[in-house]
Amino acid sequence: MIIEKLLLITASAAAIQPFYSEVLGLPVIRSEQGSFTVQAGWSELTFREMDPQPAEKHYYHFAFTIPENRLPEAKKWIEALVPIGTEAGQDVSYSESWNSHSVYFEDPAGNILELIARHTMDNAAAHPFDPQQDILCISEIGVPTSSVPAAVDQFESFGLMTYKTRNDSFNPIGDDNGLLMVVETGRRWHFTDKTAESFPVRVTIRGIGELYLREDEQGLSIENIN
């Protein structure tokens, strides 16, 4: 599953744009009052303010794929810039079932970002880690909901299928290229002290189009807005 575009809500686009453009070094391809877009490999990441501003503070969890052999260098790069998340005394997450290593950190708005090296992918880099070349794509976006099974059924109706194993509280949708991380609201995000809360997301998936995801009284609402 290829995530071509991801649009997230923020309280202040101007406050976080320098983090993405200057700290992470992602090229700004669009910028206007209340929003900006950066290029992250084959994906576009947009932050946009809502009018009027919502009372709650929006935060999301999403991941960037990096070359499968460059996690140690990427970790050294990012931890020189921002604090990285820890859990049980460890600052690198290893998933045996996914065959991947990750590090976690936050942007100034409290969004939880992840750099993930998936060893199942044939994307090893021969050169030293370079964020401008080696942030390859957005490969995950968290989708919290009160009813994971119902959300999974909806995604399947769009032809988006479970990755690995179906689960009632944590159920990724997609493949190694891109995943919608459908999780139960209130579940703690890995390597953080934050719980999964639902906020509106617009995600454009190659071959599917743009989906508007938001939680309502019935659970996750998925609207194809093409």
List keywords for this structure.
226 residues; alpha+beta; seven-stranded mixed sheet; 15% helix
What radius of gyration results from the CA coordinates? Answer: 17 Å
**Spans of 5+ residues with little confidence (pLDDT < 50)?**
none
Topology order in helix (H) and strand (E) letters: EHEEEEHEEEHEHEEEEE
By secondary-structure content and strand pairing, the structural class works out as alpha+beta
* Number of separate strands: 14
Mean pLDDT: 96
**Roughly how much helix do the residues carry, as a percent range?**
10-25%
Please report the distance between the alpha carbons of the first and last residues. 18 Å
Give the DSSP E fraction (strand runs of 2 or more residues). Answer: 35-45%
Largest sheet: 7 strands, mixed
Provide the spatial order of strands within the biggest beta sheet.
2-3-4-1-12-13-14
Number of helices: 4
Shape: globular
Write the layout of secondary structure elements.
Layout: E1 3-9, H1 13-23, E2 28-32, E3 35-40, E4 43-48, E5 61-66, H2 71-79, E6 93-95, E7 100-106, E8 112-118, H3 131-134, E9 137-145, H4 148-157, E10 170-175, E11 178-184, E12 201-205, E13 209-216, E14 219-224
Parallel strand pairs: 1-4, 5-8, 9-11
Antiparallel strand pairs: 1-12, 2-3, 3-4, 5-9, 6-7, 7-8, 10-11, 12-13, 13-14
What features would you describe in this structure?
The protein is of the alpha+beta class. 15% of the residues lie in helices and 39% in strands. It contains four helices and 14 strands. The strands form two sheets. Strands 2-3-4-1-12-13-14 form a seven-stranded mixed beta sheet, with helices on one face. 37% of the residues are buried. The mean pLDDT is 96.
